[in-house]
Design a protein that fits this description.
Radius of gyration: 23 Å
Distance between the termini: 12 Å
Oligomer: single chain
Shape: globular
CATH architecture: Beta Barrel
Helix content: under 10%
Structural class: mainly beta
Largest sheet: 22 strands, antiparallel, barrel
Number of helices: 3
């Protein structure tokens, strides 16, 4: 399904440039955005896509320039060879706050300053199969390009992942072997390789619960621990609980030579609500660590037996939230800020709950993350940034045409090196009127402010926005 449309928007702001109170100016922002959305959900392919070209005219501010801003967010998974080979792809091009301590907002594309365009492209063919009745295997190759914008170096990541495991039905005792490697190449010429290997024995307690325990090996060319080692062995474990298609829990932990690595993913869907959780504590390259968010389909829907993502439509609660514009099918971004380091210790958790009951619907999300430089560029400085916050949106349908919604958002950021802190708050009240099955009109009022210490820009803003949206 492909649905083109066009959106016109006028915003009147008492602080159009997001400046401190003593220097702020009133102004207007006029926007016209042609866009297209697409969804595919067939036995051979699943995917979601959105592209919009935001044309902007600014009036009343310091710099009344006209601009075009791209907003592209898409992912897809296509079967190339029946039950054997698939191709996963993902692309993102959108604006983010360059620094959480500059003048920031929850719609960075409308800002005059402290704005960077983030670009991320990934292609990953993978193959899978079985060896007789003894086990199953998966091999995946990945190629990824990330450009965070601003003055941060872009990089290219090549990765290879392989896993083999015994299958259920061969008794309670089994085995699992997993390996991954990556080569990361930065624009300025810094390259490094990394690899991991885990060998585990497994035990199946029943048809829903599987656990494993074993050893793991890790190596990284440029990451050394306190003993001067860049490789080493340690314990490794995992657990999988899959009681049904509506509930999943997957967790794994490894004692790497540089510290603990852990990942947890949980999701559940009930009759009227749904829940998703992602947690990881690991080493990442600086460019992928600089953006914190979630893929909606990955957070709210279980993966298929082949590892392919399920379409968001397999979760009717999440699909209902998408239809009510409370949830983006292509993903949501929280906690951004460029991390100018080739390797970063990253700890992050994102949990989201969605609920629909008759005329009412609600979506709440909370996140926290810490990103700390593990290896700095030559003559570069380190980073150590904590962020946490969330958003809560409640919508109520007064009748088939009228919907009122209220959204509150907060992001707190702290730089543990220079002591700067920043708190960004926003409240948004929206009334939406359905003119026809293809057209909507909306009126929104927004209060937004930023407070903090150190280098943080402090400002207040109040704005009114009128929107007209038409889908062909």
């Amino acid at each position: 399904m492909v649905a083109p449309g066009i959106r016109a928007r006028i915003t009147a702001s008492d602080n159009v440039d997001l400046l401190p109170d003593a220097t702020k100016r009133s102004g207007q922002l006029y926007e016209l955005m042609p866009y297209v959305t697409a969804r595919v959900n067939t036995p051979r392919a699943v995917g979601e896509a959105f592209y919009g070209l935001r044309g902007q005219i600014r009036n009343g501010g310091i710099d009344d320039r006209n601009e075009l801003r791209n907003d592209l967010r898409a992912f897809g998974d296509l079967e190339l060879v029946d039950n054997a080979v698939r191709l996963y792809g993902r692309v993102s091009v959108f604006d983010v706050n360059t620094s959480p301590f500059g003048a920031s907002s929850f719609d960075p594309a409308t800002q005059r300053t402290n704005r960077s365009q983030y670009r991320d492209l990934e292609l990953s063919p993978y193959t899978f199969g079985r060896f007789g009745s003894e086990g199953e295997w998966t091999v995946r190759y990945g190629l990824r390009y990330v450009d965070p914008g601003a003055s941060v170096q872009s990089n290219t990541i090549q990765s290879l992942f392989g896993q083999a495991r015994s299958t259920a039905g061969r008794g309670p005792v089994g085995w699992l072997a997993r390996t991954d490697s990556a080569r990361v190449a930065y624009q300025a010429g810094l390259d490094y390789d990394s690899s991991n290997l885990d060998l585990l024995g497994t035990y199946r307690f029943d048809t829903t619960l599987l656990a494993g325990l074993g050893v793991g090996y890790s190596r990284n060319d440029i990451l050394f621990n306190d003993r001067g080692e860049n490789s080493g062995w340690g314990a490794s474990a995992f657990v999988e609980w899959l009681p049904g298609p509506r509930t999943q829990l997957r967790a794994r932990w490894s004692d790497r030579y540089w510290g603990n690595a852990a990942e947890v993913r949980a999701l559940h869907r009930a009759a009227r609500w749904t829940f998703g959780l992602d947690f990881f504590d690991q080493i990442r390259d600086g460019n992928t660590a600089g953006l914190n968010g979630y893929n909606t389909a990955a957070l709210f829907t279980p993966t298929t037996a082949t590892g392919a993502p399920s379409p968001i439509g397999t979760n009717p609660i999440a699909d209902g939230l998408v239809n009510q514009n409370l949830l983006s099918p292509t993903g949501t971004t929280f906690g951004v800020g460029a991390i100018n380091s080739p390797l970063v210790f990253t700890r992050s958790a994102i949990g989201s709950v969605g609920w629909i009951d008759g005329r009412s619907s609600l979506l709440g999300t909370a996140f926290l993350t810490n990103r700390r430089t593990a290896v700095a560029f030559t003559n570069g400085s380190g980073n150590d940034i904590d962020q946490y916050g969330g958003s809560l949106t409640y919508a109520y349908s007064l009748d088939p045409r009228n919907v009122a919604s209220l959204t509150g958002r907060r992001t707190y950021s702290e730089n543990n090196i220079d002591g700067s802190t920043s708190t960004l708050d926003a409240a948004l009240l929206t009334w939406l009127y359905r003119l026809s099955p293809q057209a909507n009109a909306a009126l929104s009022g927004r209060l937004q402010r930023q407070r903090g210490d150190g280098t943080t820009v402090r400002y207040d803003e109040a704005a009114l926005t009128a929107t007209l949206d038409y889908r062909f």
